[in-house]
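Ex. 9. Protein: DUF192 domain-containing protein.
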Amino acid sequence: MIRYLLVSLLLSSIIFLFGMIKEKKEVCINEKCFELEVAKTQEEKARGLMFREKLEKGKAMLFPYEEGGIYSFWMKNMNFPLDIIWINKDKKIVYIEENVPPCKTKECPNYRHEGKYILEINAGLSEEYGIRTGDAVDLPHLKGYLNKMEQK
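Predicted structure tokens for DUF192 domain-containing protein:
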């Protein structure tokens, strides 16, 4: 009986620990990969990277949308500049707004373009890594999530 309880406890612990380990999500462009944070809900998309002190180099935030369209971003309540990259349904870069500064005033400019996925990375990395319009974007660890989203 005790042996059965110990085995059950051990298996439960292992299952719990595997559940805590998240699959690393990343996006790769020109063999440069970024660890992703994905804004899935409307609330996460509205908040984005606002109020954060910084975005670590090598990290990015992805905003996936169910439909392609014109999506607008602003830098209200941001503390650091970004490169904002619009990506189409074929996962090709269609537009890059580079070195977008934070906005600390009441009215902030909007940066808008057509796309299906929008990627935010640290300012200057598009130029540093040679990321250009027309480049293919690889989202290997998000294929299941993106396929589910596209089927809705």
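Check your answer against this statement. Helices lie at 2-20, 42-47, 125-128, 143-151.
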